[in-house]
Amino acid sequence: MTTIKRLDALEILDSRGRPTISARCELQSGATASCSVPSGASTGSGEALELRDGDSRRYGGLGCRKAVEHVNVEINSILAGSAFASQSELDRALIDLDGTTNKSRLGANAILAVSLAFARARSMESQQPLYRNFANMIGSQLPLLPRLTVNLFSGGKHAGNQVPIQDVLVCPISTSSVSASLEMVYAIYQTAAKEILSRYGMRLLRADEGGLAPPCATIDELLSLAVECIEQAGYCPGKDVALAVDVASSHFFDQGTYNLGDEQLTSEGMVDRLVTWIDTYPIVSLEDGLAEDDWDNWPDLFARIGDRCLVLGDDLLCTNPKRIQRAGASHAANALLLKVNQIGTLTEAAEAYRLARSFGWKITVSARSGETEDNWLADLAFGWSADQIKIGSITQSERLAKYNRLLEIETEIGAA
Ligand code: PGA
Ligand code: ZN
């Protein structure tokens, strides 16, 4: 049993300079740890509620003082002094205390910060790495490091909509080593930065996750540029390095129409377009190709590309077991983008994970566009043997904290 002595929290700032929350958990044994939670901008409508103060005098209403107070007062007064046999016991207590289906009373940000801080404090108490604690949660003995999918170009909500799709990511596939993958990504990123300067006369413009935001006129121009940069950096597209795309199409879908730049496409037209991209470019993973509520057309997309590409659901699934069940039963996808803060506790994220695995799906563990310098995501991806990890680009410290933690883990397990 693990007894909580005290829980508290504070408001901190994320990588966009917006408030978020960090919680600290002190155990009876003296072990004490903090964890902070990220925040999305391109959010799915099925996500758990991130509690914001709504007071326009502070941070345009984005303050997190209410969430902080919920940890300091209500959650602490109920849970301090209580003993828990497992992470899931603690998480169940938080879910019951909140009492809503989307964590809107206490706030998913408050609840997740406590859930994570408890996990880290327990790992300190048992003197084990955090990933071991995560691996135990899902009964995994031999964790594996994920393949990197790294943001090269951004558009959509993360980059001022210069192109409607959100991310073009590079995935080193000729190596399974994190350190070798990062070397390859660095070479491609530098090549892309030079190429953008010579082609568009532009200095580096970086989007929220550090991806470059070239002023390409079309999506095809952007995808071709990514392929050219891979080649120019000395790698073979599709053999050494593949592409992943986050279309994030919920954000340009309106009343049955996909507003893809100057074009208006029906769902059938959008599926055709996605198939053309998969046929033309070395894309191994396609995220949110269709909108989160376009359920009728996901099975068609899956039938046409599911044998050669991951059909990955982010807004579609929201790390929510109910949505994953529906997608699995209707053959809508074959991969889950797992973001713990979409559901609000580690235990429910583990349920989402198990359910996705029961359908034979692949898992991509993902950061959010608003991140902190915390690195628990790397331990989670390794502990749960995620197939892929999506952290963002390699230029900002809130992203590098996670890449560097993966390097640390790789060195540790290599030495072992
Ligand atoms: P978000 O975007 O963190 O802004 O929601 C990330 C994504 O869509 O994958
Ligand atoms: Zn996404």
Describe the structure.
It is a single chain. The chain is of the alpha/beta class. It folds into 2 domains: 2-127, 2-Layer Sandwich (Enolase-like, domain 1), CATH 3.30.390.10; 138-413, Enolase-like C-terminal domain (TIM Barrel). Helix content is 40%, strand content 19%. The chain has helices spanning 65-79, 87-98, 108-125, 130-137, 178-200, 219-232, 267-280, 298-305, 321-329, 340-343, 346-358, 376-383, 397-415; strands at residues 2-13, 19-27, 32-36, 83-84, 147-154, 167-172, 241-246, 253-254, 257-260, 263-265, 283-287, 310-313, 335-338, 362-366, 388-392. The strands form 3 sheets. The protein has an 8-stranded mixed β-barrel, surrounded by 7 helices. Strands 3-2-1-4 form a 4-stranded antiparallel β-sheet. α5 (178-200) crosses α6 (219-232). The longest helix is centred in the middle third of the chain and has 23 residues, at 178-200. It is globular and about 60 Å long. The protein starts with a strand and ends with a helix. The relative contact order is 0.15. The model has no long low-confidence stretch (mean pLDDT 96). It binds 2-phosphoglycolic acid and zinc ion. Zinc ion is lined by residues 246, 248, 287-288, 314.
Count every helix, treating DSSP H or I runs of 4 or more residues as helices.
13
Bound molecules: 2-phosphoglycolic acid, zinc ion
Residue-averaged pLDDT: 96
Biggest sheet architecture: 8 strands, mixed, barrel
Class inferred from helices and paired strands: alpha/beta
Tally of domains: 2
Question: Any idea what the shape is?
Answer: globular
Radius of gyration: 21 Å
CATH architecture of the largest domain: Alpha-Beta Barrel
Question: In CATH, what is the class of the largest domain?
Answer: Alpha Beta
Percentage beta strand: 15-25%
* CATH fold-level topology of the largest domain: TIM Barrel
Parts with pLDDT < 50 across at least 5 consecutive residues: none
